[in-house]
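**Polypeptide and fold**
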Amino acid sequence: MGSINYDDSDVLDVLIIGAGISGINAAYRLHDELPDKKYLILENREQLGGTWDLFKYPGIRSDSDLHTFGYAFKEWTGADIAEGKEILTYLKKVAADNGIEERIRYKTRVNSADWSTEERCWFVSTEQDGQQKQYRSRFLYTCTGYYDYDAALKADIPGIQNFKGKVVHPQFWDLKEDDYRGKRVAVIGSGATAITLIPSMAEVTKDITLVQRSPTYILSLEKYDPIAKVLRAVLPQKMAAFVIRQKNIARIYASYHIFRTFPGVAKKILGRLTSMQLPKDIPLDPHFKPNYNPWDQRLCICPDGDFYKTLREGKAHIATGHIDQVTNNEIILKNGERIPCDIIVTATGLKLHVGGKIATSVDKKLIKASERFVWKGCMIEGLPNYALSIGYTNASWTLGSDCTAQYVVRMIKHMDKYHKSMVVPEPSNRDQLEEGPLLDLTSTYVKKAEKDLPKAATTGPWRMRTNYWYDLVQAKYGGYDELVFQ
């Protein structure tokens, strides 16, 4: 399709905030299904890619398989678990091939957005290259991810200020390989980032130790899916991509529901799989025996068992217990164990934030998203012509963000057909809604952020989204219950 040229001062049909994986997804759906609509993407950073451009730590990769983390409209042909640079290359190609790159305005920080009911328009104030600039748009679509780009989650580590070596958080990685070559490194944390860092850094460090307060479930997956190889060999490319994607979605949900329904069985299976990969000198308990059920927190994935391989080769070690004190050159646990180190990596989680720190108001009245319910996982109660891109906690993020994109496109078509200029979610029985979490995980970083996130209910269109297939049908064919069109 050819590109549409227009001045930035025009009133836009859709203004997308964020040029990460969700923003590019949203732009593609608009470009493909509503080619006559005028849209722009505002991106605070100097490049597209979001997470995959921001994070620079060793081994950065997706913890979801790329056949589901990638786009439905652009098949993924690489490894199931891919590195960040490969994902970034993929995103850039999608943007270039579909004319999306020319619609992005980089180095543009969005400070505020005010909806005018009288003018049926969003007035969005930004700072662009140090200059103030305002955009006007009929629809505002935030694709800013789920965490704070400017600040990491602060972890309470006793005595960390006493440490004389380097302390670095993965979100703000500033080390080169030579900076940790031959050094003793301690990685504090037990999530996906820590499990990724250990095998990547262990190749050059003198010693590297995972220091965890409590363990997590770590599941090995083959980097290259053998079934996917067979399907590509016998099916046409697009059909193979579709079948592989659906197979992987089915695998995700089968394991999720079986593990949640039979947690005792799940623990035994995961424990057995882990024991088979551990060296004899590292026991399952306490290092790999979590005190929570599988899927209360996300399972960590390690491709081809690289994390366990590093332990078996003696290149890495593990220490489990609460930190008593950090001295000038070591970490001391409350059980008396000491971990000498020259560098400490605080892989303790992200600071969650939804909506991109944009002061959002309706007719000059400030709206606090944390006091509002989310409609079908994609719109916020009381905010007109506004969409929010949120993914899944029990599956790939992109699956959820694409459901939102398809809902937005269909909603705009519906409004055009019936000559409506405003749509706003309004619960008919708000006082009867039972509040629930927006993200169904017990991880520390999620629990710390719950009070600041929008709310989900337990029933109706306000409940948390959990199933891609159901949500996709809703996005394509579902009703508009509890939406008010004007």
Notes: The first helix runs from residue 21 to 33. The first strand starts at residue 11 and ends at 17. Residues 43 and 106 are 5 Å apart (CA to CA).
